[in-house]
Write a structure and sequence with these properties.
This protein is of the alpha/beta class and about 150 residues long.
Length: about 150
């Protein structure tokens, strides 16, 4: 199973892009397993552990609006979450992968796809820079799914 996790608040304009793209790709690729929510949930660790490949999709205010970035979430990478934070209060893609491995014995290959956001204020419309880049973002994710 290939798993696409799209996350971000649907009430904060560009932040909803992860969910929007994940749901659109689910319609195009019915065999794709998709999870969406405003934030990552520790309950997803079991589903993650069963996947052959996991892709996380989210908006990023650190990137230039519409810019796309892709990062491998290799097990060899250092865990950056502060150990004093409880995993139930602040999940990251990396912490979910670690939880899947710890609880279920499997950490599948995973990638984080980010797209630069221009507007995270309250609202339901994407910025123009994001609208132009969404097809490219979807294509990049689709290509990674085909590679696997």
């Amino acid at each position: 199973m290939q798993l696409l996790i799209g996350y971000g608040s649907q009430l904060h304009s560009d932040d909803a892009v992860g969910q929007t793209v994940a749901l659109a790709l689910q319609k195009e690729l019915p065999e794709l397993e998709v999870l969406t929510a405003a934030q990552l949930l520790p309950e997803w660790a079991e589903t993650i552990s069963r996947a052959e490949l996991v892709i996380f999709a989210d908006a990023s205010p650190e990137l230039k609006a519409g810019e796309i970035a892709c990062f491998s979430l290799d097990a060899a990478e250092q865990h950056t979450q502060n150990s004093s934070n409880s995993i139930t209060h602040h999940c990251t893609p990396q912490s979910l992968l670690e939880l899947a491995e710890l609880l279920y014995g499997n950490r599948p290959p995973a990638w984080l796809y980010l797209i630069g956001s221009a507007n995270l204020s309250l609202g339901e419309n994407f910025s123009s820079a994001l609208v132009v880049s969404i097809p490219v973002f979807k294509k990049a994710i689709r290509l990674k799914l085909r590679e696997a």
